Amino acid sequence: MDLEGYTRLALRRGKSYDDTLHNLTNRILEIKDISRSRARDLACAVLREVMATSDLTDDLITFAPSSITMGGFGVGSRGEGDFYVHQKIAEVIGSTSAVIDSSHLDDSGAVRANGNYIVLTVDGMHSRLSDFPFLAGFHVARAALRDIYVMGAQPIALLSDIHIADDGDVAKIFEYTAGIAAISELMNVPLVTGSTLRIGGDMVIGDRMTGCVGAVGIANFLIAKKDARAGDVILMTEGAGGGTISATALYFGMSEVVRETLNIKFLRACEILYEDGLTAEIDAMTDVTNGGIRGDAAEISKTAGAKLIFEEEKIRALVNPIVLRMLDKLDIDYLGVSLDALLIIAPRSIAGDILESLRRCDIAADVVGRVEKGSGVQLFKDGKYHDLTLKFRESAYTPIKKVVGELADVDISEMRVKIDEATRNAARKKKKVIQLIRGQKSPRQPNLF
Question: What is the pLDDT of residue 442?
Answer without folding.
Answer: 65
